[in-house]
Amino acid sequence: xxxxxxxxxxxxxxxxxxxxxxxxxxxxxxxxxxxxxxxxxxxxxxxxxxxxxxxxxxxxxxxxxxxxxxxxxxxxxxxxxxxxxxxxxxxxxxxxxxxxxxxxxxxxxxxxxxxxxxx
Length: 119
Description:
The protein has 119 residues and is mostly beta strands. It contains no helices and eleven strands. The chain has strands at 4-7, 10-13, 18-24, 33-39, 46-51, 58-60, 68-73, 78-83, 92-99, 108-109, 113-118. Strands 2, 4, 5, 6, 9, 10 and 11 form a seven-stranded mixed sheet that branches. Strands 1-3-8-7 form a four-stranded antiparallel sheet, with no helix packed on it. Strand 9 (92-99) and strand 10 form a beta hairpin. The radius of gyration is 13 Å and the shape is globular. The protein starts with a strand and ends with a strand.
């Protein structure tokens, strides 16, 4: 079982920055692919960014490409999401997720952290 705990959300003005962190339990963190999803009120949960277990492969949603950066520190069992140039449409609950080796879906989810961007 993997526990994921997000932190770093909050209220920020448009154009500002936030860094989300996600701390994972367990010794096998370096074998997990990790992702950040977000869900705005009344909308589906969408993948924002993903990173492979080694950090060598990264992908972003078109809506955040060039503004958000996902990274990981396997020594600290932590994945980050640096968010720059925030827009009101980035307002959502952000979830950290972990995908086990050979799994086709994200298997574990954090509780979510609220990000609110004011105009």
